[in-house]
Amino acid sequence: MTQDDRLIDLEMKLAHQEHLLDELNQTVYRQEKKIEELDMLLHALAKRFKELSDTSQDRAAANEKPPHY
């Protein structure tokens, strides 16, 4: 293998690795955005669940018979 062949081979490998790195960076970026979206959704659902739970407890307390019955 000549020096030129080795250099061409290394340049091809480097180009392939750079392309792969770009693809991986894009994948990580998309995953980070999705995680942020899911995190916001989780917080909204947790807040809604707490609101519904509090409302349910208030209704249950209003429907209880007083202790003297």
Automatic annotation (TrEMBL):
rRNA-binding as UniProt keyword: no
The entry's keywords: Coiled coil
Coiled coil, from the record: 7-41
Family the entry assigns: Belongs to the SlyX family.
Identification of the protein by name: Protein SlyX homolog
Gene that specifies this protein: slyX
